[in-house]
């Protein structure tokens, strides 16, 4: 990763035409003699957030055509005026404009004359006395397509912003211009399609000044976003001929974090297809005016209003979150949602049952959600949502259960979170259309299905997390759906059993059981799951054993982590010919003796880390390692505290091995037989003084990655890059890292 460019050798490449520094996230400066690159045409320095300034005399690069980023430094020898003689094209971002002290220098940049520029971004990171004058001086050419102004601290915008002479401008973003009280007349831009206004904290009213002086404001605007406008109080209508429709092409309107905004939104936006209003606590949203909506999201508003008789025949996605009051008429709303595919309701505490409870209609409870007099409506009104595929309920703390009948016929996915009164999903039968169920943080959920029976249907994926009262998926004698492919149960501390028995016609492919402290055993019949590929068991502290018959023969991935009471791995591990990955970490019991039978023969990755009961390495069956002719990756950590040499004499590493990770061996002093390795990592081996074997004078030439992490003081001192006494012996390795694991991970981001 390029951190800084100190050497000038790169600037001796006088014929260089393209220099790409994109995404050099730690680059701070460029060589001072960059101007020597007289033939340079493209200098790509985009996404270099730490770049402090530009090198001097950039004006000498007369052939330069692309320069995405120009940073004005403090007292920089290369002021913004250096851009004047450059014929730039494409995108130009001018950063730290607060460092422009001389307005004349901004004028010398001649931004107006750069006719090939398509995108201009003007950014301030602090304040200065002449910001308004600088902004005026940076007026671009009139064919500009996109304009962004960020961090400007002047009291008002320059008059050129929003001027109709910018007839090709399609995109404008104004961000964090906190002192401006009024928006520029952006409605005058004839081809503006996307407008984003964010963080203009001093704007209180949006009205005539925004629309501008033209007969039809915003004639082709398709997307409008307002965000983080803390003091915005009113959005005034455009006072034009009433026959003229404002925003005639508006397809998307997003308003977020405008807590003071009151009143009503513009009416008659007939083209509006997406409406998202989030965290506008004082706003009343009347959706009656937007009958062509396809997506509606209302979150944290004062009120949602709908007038009877208006139907939303195109609405596909509706999300209602934490809104104080809904006034939605059933006859004109629910039954009009003929294409609704996704419905999400969040934070509606009065919702007791979605559409019925124990065969009785609960009109008083649900009226706060749906509104109006619903006594004349059939009890299964939600069945009218015949296109509904996904239902999400979050924070409906009084929801008790779902009915047995009346489900939307196309419903495929149900997600529930923090519905703390929910005791079971259904009484007897999962609806046949449902393929995915996700339940999270429902503290009183005891079972997925209340009574015993087959969980028939088409369910393919089941996830239950953070449900502290869950004891089992079904009552005594229940069975999983034959179609179920993936099951995840996590953080369910009272779980006693998943199901009594796995049947051989179950199509499970993945099982993940994590943090279920009370689970003592797996269901019988695990060995019969002929399609099972992946089994993960993590932090199940009471798990004692696997069922009779062991593991299914087609298993390819097995991970067991932190199961203190697990007495042993299943017998017959050496017969699992399809197993490619075996990870055993932080487990107790007599795991080592089972592996003495032999490892699965076709392993590609083997991880044995920090067992609770440490034994000599030879007792882990590692003397069979050389038989694993497909093994490519081996992790050994904390297995044998007395180990002095790795590998020990009785253990031969397979020739196929290319990646080795070893750690937590307090007495390890020697390494050997590392031929063919491509990657080596070592940590917490305080007595290890060399990574080169006693009978060898160099590391294998195949090694391309070497990592020495914390806890290896002798190695760190000897091999520290550029400083260690033996650095020359590893300097040929393309990637060497010596330091803390987390620091490397941070650097790689």
Task: Please provide a written account of the structure.
This protein has 749 residues and is mainly beta. The chain contains 7 helices and 36 strands. Among the domains are: 556-662; 669-749, no CATH class. The strands form 5 sheets. It has a 28-stranded parallel sheet that branches. The chain has a two-stranded parallel sheet with strand order 1-2. The protein is flat, with a radius of gyration of 33 Å. The chain starts with 17 loop residues before the first strand and ends with a helix. The relative contact order is 0.03.
- How many beta strands in the DSSP annotation? 36
- Helical segment count: 7
Mean pLDDT: 86
Secondary-structure-based class equals mainly beta
Q: Poorly predicted ranges (pLDDT <50, ≥5 residues)?
A: 1-7, 350-380
- Rg value: 33 Å
Termini, distance in Å? 11 Å
State the helicity in percent bands: under 10%
Largest sheet: 28 strands, parallel
The 3D shape can be described as: flat
Strand content: 15-25%
